[in-house]
Design a protein that fits this description.
With 119 residues, the chain is of the alpha/beta class. The protein is built from three helices and six strands, in the order E-H-E-E-E-H-E-H-E. Helices cover 34% and strands 28% of the residues.
Amino acid sequence: MKIAIMGIRGIPANYGGFETFAEEMAPRLVKLGHEVTVFGRTNNVDYPHPFYKGVRLHVLPTIRHKYLDTVFHTLVCVLASFFTRYDVVLICNIVEVEPEEAEVESHYLLGMHTVFTVR
């Protein structure tokens, strides 16, 4: 199964809980035979290799802004995911969104199974 994880700063984790979650979960999914891609931000990921513990790293640009960084980067990741079809997309860090509403919209938009983590 092809799985994408986005909405975080990236791995290896050097910041908060969602990054640590992704760093712990993604390699375990790879060991189970899944193909996992973690999307990261250019201003947070300085790991020089394309794979980390078997997990593909897709580092994309963002803007440095206290309020727009996560939103902008997640949008860039979603757009990039149109070019590589994933079976499941996990979007972390959705804030102040009703999960039911967001999932319905993204399901239609992405055409892929989409899971949101809401803090």
